[in-house]
């Protein structure tokens, strides 16, 4: 039933069925575009707001309570996983007069690209204009504000490289 409701609400949606957990909140704008995948798993109580374009690769998983806000474009690569309470925002409110409430202020937005085989730890945040390379681990509670190269582990606020995800070959090994 959730698949049917999603299909009705997103007119420009191209995806086969996937699993949607209970309490999933989907807010869809009139210009929203959703390009799908095989085997998308959205666990309980995710909150997605799609005003722009969302492209989801194959075998992508979201744990409970993740937030996704798309005003420009977000691309999520194959085999990527997002732990509980992850927050992904490709937009921010711009400054304005102090008497204008934030939700009425204009927004700035820039695409987010998440590579293949990326693991984003619990409560991590990915902000607008960021590209994350393939085979990256984003540590729990990290805030990603800049591009991340492939094959690294990042952590901290703001996120910085703290290790590698792939061992490099030892040229002296026989």
UniProtKB/TrEMBL annotation:
Alphabetical keyword list: Acyltransferase, Repeat, Transferase
Molecular function in Gene Ontology: acyltransferase activity
InterPro entries named in the record: Hexapep (IPR001451), Hexapep_transf_CS (IPR018357), Hexapeptide_acetyltransf (IPR051159), Trimer_LpxA-like_sf (IPR011004)
Classification via Gene3D superfamilies: Hexapeptide repeat proteins
PROSITE patterns attached to this UniProt entry: HEXAPEP_TRANSFERASES (PS00101)
Pfam family, one: Hexapep_2
Superkingdom field: Bacteria
Descriptive protein name: Acyltransferase
